[in-house]
Amino acid sequence: MLFFFIKVILFRQRTLRAQSDTKNAKSAKRYKERKERKAIQRTLRAQRNKERKDLLTVGTSPDYSPIVFALWTIAGYHTFNNWIVLQKKTCKALPAIFPKRNFL
């Protein structure tokens, strides 16, 4: 009978140790995944901050130089002007936008 109890106790200890090992492995895996996620978030945050800083620095952005900005402004002005001329010719939308002017 004593041998049976010792065997049960040893089996129970072995199963508890196996359970704690799997639990430790799972928590270690979660910890590693969390560390990797945080590292990725850190790099993304640093990249966003760098982009924001680059945008705030005037005249250093390579995409939108002052020449390109001026060309876009001129093109937008001419497009809007042509639209106004077209509306004057057809007399459709402008009376609703500018009701006090006579476009006839």
Describe this structure in words.
- With 104 residues, the protein is mainly α.
- It folds into 2 domains: 1-58; 65-104, no CATH class.
- It contains 3 helices and no strands.
- The radius of gyration is 36 Å and the shape is rod-shaped.
- The N and C termini lie far apart (114 Å).
- The model has no long low-confidence stretch (mean pLDDT 74).
| H and E order | HHH
Strand content: under 5%
Low-confidence stretches: none
Question: Structural class per helix/strand content?
Answer: mainly alpha
Total E-strand runs: 0
Instruction: Profile the largest sheet.
Output: none
Compute the number of helices: 3
Shape: rod-shaped
Count of separate structural domains: 2
Radius of gyration in whole Å, from Cα? 36 Å
Task: Give the terminus-to-terminus CA distance.
Answer: 114 Å
User: What portion of residues is helical?
Assistant: over 70%
Summed over residues and divided by their number, the pLDDT gives a mean of 74
In short, what is this structure?
The protein is an all-alpha fold and 104 residues long. 81% of the residues lie in helices and 0% in strands. The chain folds into 2 domains: 1-58; 65-104, no CATH class.
Please describe the topology of this protein:
Layout: H1 2-56, H2 66-90, H3 94-97
Key attributes of the depicted protein:
mainly alpha, 104 residues, 2 domains, rod-shaped, 3 helices
